[in-house]
Design brief:
Layout: E1 4-11, E2 14-23, H1 28-40, E3 45-56, H2 58-73, E4 77-81, H3 85-93, H4 96-99, E5 101-103, H5 106-116
Parallel strand pairs: 2-3, 3-4, 4-5
Antiparallel strand pairs: 1-2
Helix pairs in contact: 1-2
């Protein structure tokens, strides 16, 4: 069984989800639940910190695809940060940099959201 966790923290008007471990078909429901909880609370300015994300499968990528339209429909966005090269490569191969802002660190994402306010 894969080891995975999602930690939530709030930063001003932003919500940060920190991913830890391996995001695959078995663990993707945890990320889905975290994103759905934010949407249920009308929180749609989301940063996903991938600093401790070691692996992502197509099921994990599917979660991001499933939620981006809803989040943007509410006037928000999901910004991804702190990816290691191996995880970034998976996102890059599937064209995610054209769909998502992928930044080096959380402070870059915070600045991007500040520019939108």
């Amino acid at each position: 069984m894969s080891s995975f966790s999602v930690t939530h923290k709030q930063m001003d008007q932003l919500d940060v989800l920190e991913l830890n471990g391996e995001l695959d078909a078995h663990t993707a429901p945890q990320l889905e639940e975290s994103l759905q909880n934010l949407l249920n609370k009308q929180k749609h300015r989301i940063i996903v910190n991938c600093n401790k994300l070691e692996y992502i499968s197509s099921a994990g990528l599917g979660v991001f695809m499933a939620y981006i339209e809803d989040v943007r429909g509410l006037g928000g966005d999901i910004k991804l940060t702190n990816m290691n090269p191996r995880v970034y490569n998976v996102f890059d191969l599937l064209g995610f940099p054209a769909l998502y802002d992928i930044m080096d660190d959380e402070s870059d994402a915070v600045s991007q959201f500040s520019n939108l306010s």
